[in-house]
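pasting for ref. prot 1 ->
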Amino acid sequence: DRDTDKKRIEELLEENMVLEIAQKQSMNESAHLGWELEQLSKSTDLADTRKSFVFELNECASSRILKLEKDNQSLQNTIQELRDASLTSRESSLKFVELEKENQQLSKKIEKLQNQIEKEKQSNQDLETLSEELIKDKEQLQVVMETQKADTDRQVQ
């Protein structure tokens, strides 16, 4: 039973490491999205709106990641406590079941966060496309205005 428990602890540690890597990747992706939005906002009149959107996006992602990191740290502390304490086989089995459930919940949260990041990426691409279209429309309107002004000036003369 103890060998089985030790193997299970090792498996849970590996899962936690995978979750930590996924969290770091999510943080990196979120930071990159924020950077992309900042770069995009510099080139348009919608800079203030986008900056607040970037800030909210980064804050939301950061808070979720921090929560997941806290949960992960809690799981690691529990695993360490299980190692240090000599629990009976029954008690440790119950703890492992509980840890498995928490790990599954963390995995689901990370998956949801990754899905949300994908949705936000798509939203950012949509915003970029819209921004480009608005810039083109603005340029076309300026050309039309200049043409009309020239026509008006000729008519006045």
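and prot 2 ->
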Amino acid sequence: VAGLGNYGLRGTRHSVGMEVLDRLARQLAVAEGWHVDRRCCADVALATAHGLELVLLKPRRFMNLNGLSVASAAEIYSLGPEDIYLVHDDLDKALGKVAIKLGGSARGHNGVQSCISALQSNEMTRLRIGIGRP
């Protein structure tokens, strides 16, 4: 589960994916387990939920390069694109609205496009978090 965003700009609406992962880590009682994994240039926490092993990932790169971290982590943890969930902001959704998208285009989202390019696939599931337009 990758929370897309701008690592150096935490707390901004475009980094909502990382905020969601912080909350998920707290709910799964692994918030103290975040560690820097230099192999994929990301903060990583491992968790278990409903019998599934999860890799929580917050890339330490700017949004348009998040895919490099996601692809490296996929290789390290032997994951295919179909195993990856991207959590990211969506300008076209009202603030707080959430939607799941299975594969398809990036719809203009630079972080998702970066993941599609780095993984050479668009099969990732996306959890789109509405942030609305200014």
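Residues 106 and 112 are 5 Å apart (CA to CA).
The chain is about 25% helix and 30% strand.
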